Amino acid sequence: MKKINILIVDDHKIVRDGIKLYLNNHAAFNIIGEGSDGTEAIDFLKNNDNVDLVLIDINMEKMNGIEAAKIITTEFDDVKVLALTMHNDYQHIKSMMDAGARGYILKSCNEEEMLDAINTVMEDELYYSNEVAQTVMNNMAKRKPKTTGLTPLTPREKEIYRMILDEQSNNDIADKLFISVRTVEVHKRNLMEKTGSKNSTGLVLYAIKNRLFDDLV
Predict the structure, then answer these.
(1) CA dist 76 to 44, 72, 135, 178, Å?
(2) To which H or E segment does residue 185 belong?
(3) Model pLDDT for residues 166-178, shown as the tens digit of each residue
(4) Which residues of 67-79 are buried (b: 16+ CB within 10 A; e: fewer)?
(5) pTM score, two decimals?
(6) Most buried among 24, 118, 135, 153, by the most CB within 10 A?
(7) Cα separation of 194 and 190, whole Å?
(8) Which of the pair, 124 or 3, is modelled with greater confidence?
(9) Neighbouring-strand partners of residue 30
(10) Residue 178 CB contacts under 8 Å (≥ 6 apart), including other chains
């Protein structure tokens, strides 16, 4: 099996060393380089064409992770970007998403989650940690989803979509809309079928990937 070649970019050596300690325990990963800011990441990529994944922080001098991600995803088509940061606010998450990052995890994550994030991103899927998905969910719940590029949602589906994002249970939704729990389950299943989602978190990730909430500041 081909190893995943990883470039680690963080302005703190202790963080880079900790990540290497995590990943060097797994035969599937190969740490082929490291950098302390975005400029070093770009320079490394220009001189090495075998990088599969850049694991990158956001706040760094010279060039931050968001700026670097824009360049990487534009100029290096085969390289995927996974953000690893302490920031769990919507603006940072959205900025990294807009820059082309395929995933966003927090530095408080454990080894298992980091491995899961890397593998998911390398399968060309989006990955957001539970805490990050929660932050996005809380913000998205305030807005009605757009339907551009999506099989049209009925007014009721849009309403239930928004309530799901607001973490309301099937029973809560049924009570507030004066419908049966069974009806809520049917609508929820229809939403998941239309978006190709497996669960409520999948609905959030679909909205992120398809920019259903781009009007959110």
Answers:
(1) 12, 5, 29, 52
(2) helix 181-195
(3) 778 889 999 999 8
(4) bbbbbbbeebeeb
(5) 0.69
(6) 118
(7) 6
(8) 3
(9) 5
(10) none
